[in-house]
Amino acid sequence: MSFEKAVFARSVTINFRKNKDLCIGQIRFTTKKINNSL
To answer: Does 1 score more than 70 pLDDT?
Structure first.
């Protein structure tokens, strides 16, 4: 049971990191676009 919980927690952490990186990348891209159009 604890092993399953550990695997679940790990996959959630990995997904969270991936999503965070994607969000940061999108924000940077959008900021660049806004700066270019100004």
So the answer is: no
What is the Cα gyration radius of the chain? 17
Q: Which two tokens stand for residue 6?
A: 């550990």
Q: Tokens 């990186």 map to which residue?
A: 21
Structural tokens at position 1 = 């049971």
The burial of 18, by beta-carbon neighbours within 10 Å (0-12 exposed, 13-18 middle, 19 or more buried), is given as exposed
Q: Residue 32: is it exposed, middle or buried by C-beta count within 10 angstroms (0-12/13-18/19+)?
A: exposed
Tokens of 37: 């159009």
pTM more than 0.85: no
